[in-house]
Predict the 3D structure of the following.
Amino acid sequence: MFQVTVLYNHPEDPVEFDEHYDGVHTPLAATIPGLQRYTVSRPGPGPDGTKPPYHLVAVMEYESEAAYGAGMSAPEGRATRADLANFATAGVTVMAGPAGSVV
């Protein structure tokens, strides 16, 4: 299993960000060939009420690194990456690698 975690910084306008993410970006990402699982979370405040470090965290899973590369090279993957400029203006961090096991 190969996992890609996308960390979205806090946007200037969270409502606008969420509307675009849910209405445009998520449907685009869901079409990426080879994508096996796609989860999204919106972290809440910490136990002491502090703002979380990220507005949104997306996790995408593929069978392998090769499947990820092929999916992101496909037109659907390129369209999904290109869409980031339309809403992720506060910055985004992408981390990718083999998924570990939980024991």
Summary: The chain is about 35% helix and 25% strand. The beta strands are 2-8, 35-41, 56-62, 92-98. Residues 2-98 form a domain with the Alpha-Beta Plaits fold (CATH 3.30.70.100). The two ends are 16 Å apart (CA to CA).
